[in-house]
């Protein structure tokens, strides 16, 4: 399940997050949004600890959607250090989303030899 954020939690959860954050700007009336939700949930599990994936309902949270310049849904914006580094508009395959996200993720630390 993808965590839902709001206008009031966006700054803390996204702009000040220690990890990259993929925000899905979504709406309940959007069929492509419903279609991509299970794909995002799978990616959230597969990339746990490297990226956070959250959803923001644009109807309930118009301030953040407007500030982000969201015009179509779903829009998925990847934030790193509070800045958008990649953006995808419209439903995509899991492989396409992963290819957009992975170049911006922290790499796992190599094991330390003792």
UniProtKB/TrEMBL annotation:
CDD domains: TRX_family (cd02947). Residues 1-106 form the Thioredoxin domain. Keywords: Disulfide bond, Electron transport, Redox-active center, Transport. SUPFAM superfamilies: Thioredoxin-like. PROSITE patterns: THIOREDOXIN_1, THIOREDOXIN_2. Belongs to the thioredoxin family. This is Thioredoxin. It comes from Pseudonocardia ailaonensis. The gene is trxA_2.
């Amino acid at each position: 399940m993808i965590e839902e954020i709001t206008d009031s939690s966006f700054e803390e959860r996204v702009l000040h997050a220690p990890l990259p954050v993929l925000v899905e700007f979504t709406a309940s009336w959007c069929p492509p949004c419903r279609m991509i939700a299970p794909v995002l949930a799978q990616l959230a599990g597969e990339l746990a600890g490297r990226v956070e994936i959250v959803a923001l309902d644009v109807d309930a949270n118009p301030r953040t959607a407007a500030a982000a310049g969201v015009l179509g849904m779903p829009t998925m914006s990847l934030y790193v250090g509070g800045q958008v580094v990649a953006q995808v508009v419209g439903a995509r395959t899991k492989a396409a989303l992963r290819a957009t996200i992975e170049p911006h993720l922290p790499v796992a630390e190599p094991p330390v030899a003792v």
